[in-house]
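Lecture notes, continued. The same structure-token format from the folding unit now serves as the input rather than the output. Read the line below as a description of shape only.
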């Protein structure tokens, strides 16, 4: 390497570094934008605090000591308690939930809230549309067979 690179060489080195950093930044922006678009187009609703309230209310319902969990298991009704009840975030689960919900209700929603009830089934809630309107929850078994609808 020569002792003196000439006046152009340091500038070229700086330009190469800037291009490399600009390229890396552009890739980062594209990745974030793609992830953001995918999240916006996801069939999974995870809005807070509504998502947490949905899961919290289900956990309370399932923790009711009056529930006969043995009977629920025998008839194939989804059953779990505590942390086994989770808000779904996987696209394939939510897509199946949208299809099942639309088939059952005749609606044409593109995204829903979905609760995983352990590995036994799902509870689906569409996004609320009007304040004061009763929300209906739909229970499906693990094969997306409808089990019950209940006001939430």
């Amino acid at each position: 390497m020569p002792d003196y690179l000439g006046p152009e060489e340091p500038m070229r080195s700086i330009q190469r570094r800037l291009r490399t950093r600009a390229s890396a930044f552009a890739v980062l922006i594209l990745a974030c934008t793609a992830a953001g678009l995918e999240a916006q187009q996801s069939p999974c609703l995870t809005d807070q605090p509504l998502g947490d309230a949905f899961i919290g209310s289900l956990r309370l319902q399932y923790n009711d000591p009056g529930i006969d969990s043995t009977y629920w298991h025998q008839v194939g009704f989804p059953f779990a308690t505590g942390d086994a009840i989770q808000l779904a975030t996987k696209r394939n689960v939510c897509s199946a939930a949208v299809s099942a919900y639309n088939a059952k209700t005749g609606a044409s929603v593109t995204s829903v809230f979905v609760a995983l009830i352990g590995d036994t089934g799902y509870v689906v809630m569409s996004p609320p549309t009007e304040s004061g309107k009763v929300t209906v929850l739909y229970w499906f078994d693990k094969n997306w067979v409808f089990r019950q609808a209940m006001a939430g």
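Point for the exam: Residues 8-40 form the longest helix (33 residues).
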